[in-house]
Amino acid sequence: MISNTEKRSRLKMSKKIMIVYKSVTGFTKEYAQMIAQELDCSLIDFKNVTAQMMSEVDIVIFGSRMHAGMVDGLKKAKQLFAQSKASQFIVFATGAMPNEEKDTIDEMWKNNFTSEELQQIPHFYMQGGLRYEKMPFFDKMMMKVFCMMMKKKKNKNEKEQQLADIITTSYDISSKSYIMPLIEALKL
User: Fold this and answer.
1) How far is the CA of 149 from the CAs of 16, 135, 146, 153, in angstroms?
2) Rg of the chain's alpha carbons, rounded to an integer?
3) What span, in angstroms and rounded, lies between the C-alpha atoms of 58 and 151?
4) How far lies 70's CA from each of 25, 82, 95, 125, 185, in Å?
5) Which of 181, 148, 179, 188 minimizes the C-alpha distance to 38?
6) Residue 21: exposed, middle, or buried by beta-carbon count in 10 A (0-12, 13-18, 19+)?
7) What is the pLDDT along the chain (188 residues), one digit of tens a residue?
8) What whole-number distance in Å separates Cα of residue 72 and Cα of residue 40?
9) Distance CA 136, CA 94 (A)
């Protein structure tokens, strides 16, 4: 039986991988670092990446936050990838939404990819949390308004009540286990 270390070594020898991340409150960067450590590959902040840099690898993994139903920076990342010589593009998105919210997450992917891209580009969601202390001012204000609306809403169902309770303060529900579907997909 082949050990995980040997599998990573075989993957590393056969394909060069670069992880490009765009992080605002830190969750995406933390996940990108976990993935880079697991795959023993390069890691670069999105603001520093070029299509030429992407051309130096076989696989580009792009990670960013989900913001208002969109993966922040994905459009530009797809353009850079298209200009590069890299052969595979993989996307992961992070957010405060629990992984169990499959329907909402699937809808988010549909907002970010064409139906053809949904079939061709492996994509993964990794729950993170909220860090109000690191949020940009406008995002923080939007969340506060949303919190007030949820608090004032009468006759909340159980899910809505749970959401209202959890979004009032910063929290972290991230876990290294959430990177494993992406890691396993690369080992195939």
Assistant:
1) 47, 19, 5, 6
2) 18
3) 48
4) 16, 20, 11, 12, 23
5) 179
6) buried
7) 555 555 454 554 457 999 999 998 889 999 999 999 999 999 999 999 999 999 999 999 999 998 888 999 999 999 999 999 999 999 999 988 888 889 989 999 999 999 999 999 999 999 998 887 888 788 877 877 777 777 788 887 877 777 667 777 777 888 999 999 999 998 76
8) 25
9) 16
Report CA-CA distances (Å) from 19 to 53, 78, 131, 157: 11, 14, 23, 40
Main-chain dihedrals φ then ψ at residue 62, nearest 5 degrees: -105, 130
Q: Is the dihedral of CA 82, 186, 121, 29 positive or negative?
A: negative
CA separation for the pair 36, 29 (Å, rounded): 10
Could you tell me whether strands 70-71 and 42-45 are parallel, antiparallel, or unpaired per DSSP bridges?
unpaired
**φ and ψ at residue 119, rounded to 5 degrees:** -80, -30
